[in-house]
From TrEMBL, chains A, B:
Heterodimer of an alpha and a beta chain. GO terms for molecular function: pyruvate dehydrogenase (acetyl-transferring) activity. Keywords: Oxidoreductase, Pyruvate, Thiamine pyrophosphate. Its EC number is 1.2.4.1. Coiled coil: none annotated. Residues 39-325 form the Dehydrogenase E1 component domain. The keyword Lipid metabolism does not apply. This is Pyruvate dehydrogenase E1 component subunit alpha. InterPro entries: Alpha-ketoacid_DH_E1_comp (IPR050771), DH_E1 (IPR001017), PdhA/BkdA (IPR017596), THDP-binding (IPR029061). The pyruvate dehydrogenase complex catalyzes the overall conversion of pyruvate to acetyl-CoA and CO(2). It contains multiple copies of three enzymatic components: pyruvate dehydrogenase (E1), dihydrolipoamide acetyltransferase (E2) and lipoamide dehydrogenase (E3). It catalyses: N(6)-[(R)-lipoyl]-L-lysyl-[protein] + pyruvate + H(+) = N(6)-[(R)-S(8)-acetyldihydrolipoyl]-L-lysyl-[protein] + CO2. Its cofactor is thiamine diphosphate. It comes from Geobacillus icigianus. Residues 258-277 have a biased composition (Basic and acidic residues).
From TrEMBL, chains C, D:
PANTHER family: PYRUVATE DEHYDROGENASE E1 COMPONENT BETA SUBUNIT, PYRUVATE DEHYDROGENASE E1 COMPONENT SUBUNIT BETA. Its EC number is 1.2.4.1. SMART domains: Transket_pyr (SM00861). It is an enzyme of class 1 (oxidoreductase). This is Pyruvate dehydrogenase E1 component subunit beta. It comes from Geobacillus icigianus. Pfam families: Transket_pyr, Transketolase_C. GO terms for molecular function: pyruvate dehydrogenase (acetyl-transferring) activity. Residues 10-185 form the Transketolase-like pyrimidine-binding domain. Keywords: Oxidoreductase, Pyruvate, Thiamine pyrophosphate. Its cofactor is thiamine diphosphate. SUPFAM superfamilies: Thiamin diphosphate-binding fold (THDP-binding), TK C-terminal domain-like.
Amino acid sequence: MELDFPMVQVLNEEGAIVQPAYREQITKELTMSMYRHLIRTRMVDRKCVSLQRQGRIGTYVPYEGQEACQVGSALALNDGDWMFPTYRDHGAMMTFGRSLTQTLLYWKGRTEGCVPPEGKKIVPPSVPIATQLPHAAGAACAEKWKGTKNAVIVYFGDGATSEGDFHEGLNFASVFHAPVVFFNQNNQYAISVPMTRQMKTKTIAQKALAYDIPGLRIDGNDVFAVYFKTTEALERARNGEGPTLIEAVTWRYGAHTTSDDPSRYRDQEESKKRRETTDPIKRVERFMQREGWWDEEWVNQVQGEVNAEIEQAVAEMERYPKANMSDMFDFVFAQPTWTIAEQKEAYLQWKRGMER
Amino acid sequence: MELDFPMVQVLNEEGAIVQPAYREQITKELTMSMYRHLIRTRMVDRKCVSLQRQGRIGTYVPYEGQEACQVGSALALNDGDWMFPTYRDHGAMMTFGRSLTQTLLYWKGRTEGCVPPEGKKIVPPSVPIATQLPHAAGAACAEKWKGTKNAVIVYFGDGATSEGDFHEGLNFASVFHAPVVFFNQNNQYAISVPMTRQMKTKTIAQKALAYDIPGLRIDGNDVFAVYFKTTEALERARNGEGPTLIEAVTWRYGAHTTSDDPSRYRDQEESKKRRETTDPIKRVERFMQREGWWDEEWVNQVQGEVNAEIEQAVAEMERYPKANMSDMFDFVFAQPTWTIAEQKEAYLQWKRGMER
Amino acid sequence: MITKAGVKSLTIVQAVNDALRTMLKEREDVILLGEDIGKNGGVFRATEGLLEEFGEERVVDTPLSEAGFTGAAIGMALNGFRPVVEIQFLGFIYPAYEQIMTHAARMRARTRGHFTVPLVIRAPYGAGVRAPEIHSDSTEALFTHMPGIKVVCPASPYDAKGLLIAAIEDPDPVLFLEPMRSYRAFREDVPEGKYTVEIGKGKKRREGDDVTVIAWGAMVPVAMKAAEEAEKKGIYADVIDLRTLYPLDKDLIAESVQKTGRTVIVQEAHATGGLANDVLAVINDTSFFYQKAPVERVTGFDVPVPFFAYEDDYLPTPARVLHAIEKVMNF
Amino acid sequence: MITKAGVKSLTIVQAVNDALRTMLKEREDVILLGEDIGKNGGVFRATEGLLEEFGEERVVDTPLSEAGFTGAAIGMALNGFRPVVEIQFLGFIYPAYEQIMTHAARMRARTRGHFTVPLVIRAPYGAGVRAPEIHSDSTEALFTHMPGIKVVCPASPYDAKGLLIAAIEDPDPVLFLEPMRSYRAFREDVPEGKYTVEIGKGKKRREGDDVTVIAWGAMVPVAMKAAEEAEKKGIYADVIDLRTLYPLDKDLIAESVQKTGRTVIVQEAHATGGLANDVLAVINDTSFFYQKAPVERVTGFDVPVPFFAYEDDYLPTPARVLHAIEKVMNF
Ligand SMILES: Cc1ncc(C[n+]2csc(CCOP(=O)(O)OP(=O)(O)O)c2C)c(N)n1
Ligand SMILES: Cc1ncc(C[n+]2csc(CCOP(=O)(O)OP(=O)(O)O)c2C)c(N)n1
Ligand SMILES: [Mg+2]
Ligand SMILES: [Mg+2]
């Protein structure tokens, strides 16, 4: 089976293009744009980890190492497409248009972090594993029935493939030829559980055979493979050819969340090694160097810009108006039920009394 | 994909053995035993339909047409094996040892119908679709951990493959190499929904590829194919080689249940035609005739015996002590909680009062 | 059967069908999904004729997967549709519990109203029709404890149509419970075309000053029968049909209990954790000192809904309700 | 930390670990299953060290599938094992709801006791630890309405160990809720080795004649704090820790309420449909005329458990409980 689903690479670890077919499309402009997004997402992620350590945001879910998956796939989307992310996909969300401030607010436990920018169909991250897959199938059917050319992307991890909702989502989408790309980030661990314990198969891509849809295994640390293969899958979707399952093989360098200690269940030497060899950013650097596109000054400038963006977002998050407790009551229904209205009123009254 | 999962036949529609490898094992004794079980299950099924029409039992689920699946697979079991059936598998249950009386009591809405004969590990039928698959995986793991050579068979329909529990059960079993045979009776309809609407794949067997376990497509109206292939899958299980998915392609002649009207969603001519061509019993008759094993007198005798058995069971069911309302309270917990004890006492007291 | 101009005499299941047809005509965004709802017209015929009239893209036979099609319907609701899904029997809703609990009910709150899920989940519920096991659950209380979803349960054809239309027009998710046992039990005049019955409002089905009897769904006829019997003994009952189970009609309950001071609640579900206890809480909070006797609850027992040979003993009956009425009267 | 012979000073999570270790040693049929419980020792370290001590066949890291491993555990329980499954957070139990509701809870009743499911489902629950969304549910009432399963919820290390051992020895399924917020909040002396705390019995944590305060799990410390504050104002409270949520300790509740005539119930979950209403029903049924004031319920609100920036306002606090105590006293 593994042989039937070879890992597709466009850019190899050394930074060489190994699929000449894509050579022409890989312009300097595209490469620089990708690179910019890659380092932006990485810098944001690192900042978040340090904000969490300082107690300025809550538990945080880092994605360092998975930037190519998230950036490459998000850049493949059209503006009108839908994104159904998990808790680890704020790299993709930011690349698709969610602001840094919103990202930070989410991790600060604020519902403001769930509101996408105007016109952007970014659904809030799904915390219960795999439950977003049926939503994506349904949203995609809706686009199809409306007769648009919009498509849907939905993210999920290797662990998520064990849940019933994974299966039900893919089956539903396949039966109705829904325009949706099931984008799996196979970082090879579900918290502490390695893929070998999660499933007997050696690939996730082969699970597509159970739904008679294309399944594809790609190097998830190769931003070009991710970008082109996701674009092609989205094209298929837009053309009425139905869903695709993409397995992007990757690795998270760090902990599952800031509450997790990966050394309990795996050798962190592996992460160190991978940073040197398969890192998604390094290989684009190597490629740019090969091409003679590498420009230290530009890189410094980009880093400076991103730093400024981050600092501004952090500042914005920190001077954001205090969480308004009323929000908890006001958004449950379009019109609050008497139960909620009474509970709110009683609580506010009591609180006012306490403050006096 | 269909080509990768050709339909295995041992005995074809004309009653000829098409897989010589099994020729020797198909003795007269085996054939007669199979035939006996086939007509027994069919006669019981028809009797139940008529009992339902007469209002002597409740809603009933007929399986006519699927006898080869149920008889062939049940005969492949060892005494110590486990059976996890659905509501349609009382043919298999009876073949494995559940009494007719119990079968009838179940359809009369009596819990007595759920108690298997001493020592027989027949779990009561699962009514919510596909939910029994994880149980089978777990019971099989338990046998493995105990170090026995017992295996597990679990039945389910084509519609069941759409539920999350199908996926979770197969995945769990595959990861732990559980000794279990997933026996799918693909009768091509889930109530009114045809297989084409249930899934995009043309076979169910290919879903095994998602779990890296053997998947097998067999003619479910060929009792020998069912018997030998199930035996082989059970052998694999006993030998520690893990689970197998078997798709037995079949057809229910009649309604989904006695409350269903199949003419609303399919042409019943198809059932008529199939009775003539692919019927599981007719082809064994043809085979026996070819072999010169056909003995009208013996057949009459068997029918007579089965009739007597049925009449006795019906009589037993009908003079069974009235349902004891206390049972409803007494078996919820090993020791009733005060809530149940009080409710029972109050109800009994009131009822006694009413009767006075 | 048309009884007068603009009015038809319908059963509950026909009223449901009529509501669905009305809304499929009225709104392009309405779409039905479920198992066997298309070609088969639903196992209870609630969707009969709708596939033929509105086509495969609006009346969708789905794969057999409650979490899958409920989840997909959530995605459709996010994307501009108003899906109405049918769960074949309430006892089969549990595979979709996660989708309803975490997503349908919470999406608006999580996104400050940016994303909403105007989804209706229809489910026949309850015992009393000699159905096979697991087909007879009445677990409304598992949903009234789920913030973000409303729960509606009509007892009559008129209300079934009006409430279902209101549910479809509601901007938030609604669980719509249909009393299977009453599906074809009686007819009532139902207006043609669109009308709504307000969600959140109960209805007094009978007036009396002595005792308040509160019921919903399939227990309403049981309560009514008991009230009739009570009247023969000179006891006059207010009978309240809750109609909406979340949010409860607090004012209607309080007004009646404050008048009578005596309450009987009739509930098909298991006693512990049942909706009757929510009614009790409303009485405690609004009408404590008006009470002349403890509230009597006539309920199913704390046992799994039994196989049908035992269901007559599980279900509240008019006789049991009458007994409770006498008990609160004689306290 | 060993304080005296045969006794260790443990936190709740350590007591859970100790109970599991004790029972893995004591009984060969005990087996643990769940996500990340093996190598990782559980995300809260409740199973720390157990894989190393008992091996992969008794401490089983499962695929990420709550329905799958709960269903498999049911199969193992049918086949002679006593599985203890861990649901990582109660908010993730809903995918397994069907398995628990239809199979674990009903198997004995369906088969007249022939097949049984001695299964324990452990789940950390509740808010107050600044967890990401959906990690903070406290939906015990969704299980107390499910006939055939017991629900247990310790508030202290001693009870956690004793009740968990009792749950494992119980012949029927038990949902064992662990108050996440109290996991490491304090220590208590816990005997080494095996002992049990009886399921179905609450515990009076404080004696007083003026008012009854009823709480469970993470709300017990809140109730205790409020009772201390009340004492400063001359109000003496009985504080009852329910410990078992199904079946409730009716006698303990009735005895106290009949003494004080005034009741405050403290519940973390949403008001409507919550367990407090079951307590209310017990009081209605046993102690109606002893009551001097309506019962006050201090609860979470009818809103999804909010994101953590809002959780301090969601959770009952000692100040809110004190306010309720004063209200019932001044009625
Ligand atoms: C239904 C459910 N069960 C358990 C969890 C707890 N949990 C959070 S993340 C996670 C592992 C997910 O692994 P994977 O799908 O591989 O995604 P990754 O975290 O590696 O990106 C688990 C078990 C959850 N969020 N939802
Ligand atoms: C979870 C669940 N949903 C719905 C039903 C109602 N139902 C009973 S049988 C059936 C069709 C099952 O089809 P299939 O799996 O092909 O088995 P078959 O009946 O054809 O043997 C349905 C939808 C159910 N029993 N359980
Ligand atoms: Mg992963
Ligand atoms: Mg079928």
